[in-house]
Amino acid sequence: MGNREALLEGAKRCLLEKGYARTTARDIAEAAGVSLAAIGYHFGSKESLLEQAFMGAMEDWFDDGDDTHEESPTGSIEQFRAFFDEILTSFPERRSLLRLNMEMGLEGAHNEALGHFMAGAVQYGRLELAKAFQGLTPERDGALAQSVGSFYSVLMTGLVAQYLMDRENFPTASDLAEGLLYIAERLPGA
């Protein structure tokens, strides 16, 4: 593993163990087994490294999924239930990442550069969710991809917040599917 990869892995470990605000450049360099100067050389700044490490950790989470939701028809309630069952089942082992996600989002309200980065990360997530659930892309479907992706993004963010604050009453994927069906069936024109 080269210095760049070692720094990314070290930064991921530090973020998950210490969080964004408490991770120092020295922590990362020590975790990676490289010099402090390597951070600037490979990433320009500690913040840039942490942002890339965060995105890598999020991608690792979704890459680790078993993709059982892809066996159901795109946009079906079965796919919805299977996806959220897979995601919600992963929450306990990803608790540090969930906490980090919320921390970085809140910290972005006080740190303009981080806020800009997190806004981009959320937008990326919206569009990926629209594509995964409904096969929508902004190039082909325009604002509809944004709207649908925003719905799923809000649902994900709310689930993360609820998991971190109230695991005792945390919903299951079946609860979510049942609620969605109930609401959809009662919408005018549905």
Distance between the termini: 54 Å
How many helices in DSSP terms? 10
Estimate the strand proportion: under 5%
How many independent structural domains?
2
The main sheet comes to:
none
Order of helices and strands: HHHHHHHHHH
Radius of gyration: 18 Å
What's the mean pLDDT score? 93
Q: Segments where pLDDT lies below 50 for 5+ residues?
A: none
What do you see in this structure?
By secondary structure, this protein is an all-alpha fold. It has two domains: 64 residues, Tetracycline Repressor, domain 2 (Orthogonal Bundle), CATH 1.10.357; 125 residues, no CATH class. Helices cover 73% and strands 0% of the residues. The chain has ten helices and no strands. α1 crosses α2. It starts with a helix and ends in a 5-residue tail after the last helix. The mean pLDDT is 93. This is TetR/AcrR family transcriptional regulator. InterPro entries: Homeodomain-like_sf (IPR009057), HTH-type_TetR-like_transc_reg (IPR050109), HTH_TetR (IPR001647), Tet_transcr_reg_TetR-rel_C_sf (IPR036271). Pfam families: TetR_N. GO terms for molecular function: DNA-binding transcription factor activity; transcription cis-regulatory region binding. Keywords: DNA-binding.
Short synopsis of the structure:
The chain is an all-alpha fold and 190 residues long. It folds into 2 domains: 1-64, Orthogonal Bundle (Tetracycline Repressor, domain 2); 66-190, no CATH class. The protein has helices at 3-18, 25-32, 37-43, 46-63, 77-90, 95-107, 112-134, 138-141, 143-165, 173-185.
List keywords for this structure.
mainly alpha; 190 residues; single chain; 10 helices; Tetracycline Repressor, domain 2; 2 domains
